[in-house]
Design goal:
It holds the Pfam family HTH_AsnC-type. Helices cover about 35% and strands about 20% of the residues. It has helices spanning about 10-20, 25-35, 35-50, 85-95, 120-130; strands at about 70-75, 100-105, 110-115, 135-145.
C-alpha cells in the first residue's frame, strides 16, 4: 500500500479540478491553480505515482445505453469459511455488472452495487453468484427506483 504523501493547497485545487473534469488540459489546470504547466505536470505525476489519483475514467449514464436497472445487493456470508473470501473477492472483481463492492458492518457482510439490463439478467447473475461462491449464506436485493446522486467525488477540504 502506498504511503500517504503531503498534500498542499495547490494539490487540493488540482484534485478538485480533476474531479470536476479530468479532460482539462495541463495548461488549463495550471492557469486555474496559479502554477506553471511544468509544475502542474510534476504534481499530477506525483499524485498518480502515489495513487492519490488511482485512475481517470469516463462516467457513463447507464440509461443512455438502454434500459438499465441498478440494484443494491447485501450479502450475508458463512462466518466459519474465511478461506473462501479471496475467491469471492476475485468473482466480484471479474464481474462487470458489479460496479462497487463494500465490506460493511450491520446485518450483512458485503454490499454490492450492481447494474444490469433487466431483472432477468440479474436473476442469472444472482444464480451464478450463489453457484460460484459457496460462502454466501443469503442475499437481499433492493432495486433503485430513482438516481438522486451518482458520483465518486472525494471532498478534498481547503
Amino acid at each position: 500500500m502506498p504511503e500517504n504523501i503531503p498534500i498542499d493547497a495547490a494539490d487540493r485545487k488540482l484534485i478538485s479540478l480533476l474531479q470536476d473534469d479530468a479532460r482539462r488540459t495541463i495548461e488549463a489546470l495550471a492557469q486555474a491553480c496559479g502554477l506553471s504547466a511544468s509544475a502542474t505536470q510534476r504534481r499530477l505525476q506525483r499524485l498518480r505515482d502515489s495513487k492519490v489519483i488511482s485512475g481517470e475514467i469516463a462516467v457513463i449514464d447507464p440509461k443512455r445505453l438502454g434500459t438499465r436497472i441498478t440494484l443494491l445487493v447485501e450479502l450475508e456470508l458463512e462466518r466459519d469459511r474465511p478461506e473462501l473470501m479471496p475467491a469471492l473477492q476475485d468473482w466480484i472483481a471479474a464481474t462487470d455488472s458489479v460496479q462497487q463492492a463494500w465490506q460493511i458492518t450491520g446485518r450483512g457482510d458485503l454490499l454490492l452495487v450492481v447494474v444490469t439490463r433487466s431483472i432477468e439478467e440479474f436473476d442469472g447473475l444472482a444464480e451464478r453468484m450463489m453457484e460460484d461462491n459457496r460462502n454466501i449464506r443469503k442475499f437481499t436485493t433492493s432495486v433503485a427506483l430513482k438516481t438522486l446522486k451518482r458520483g465518486l467525488r472525494v471532498p478534498v477540504g481547503d
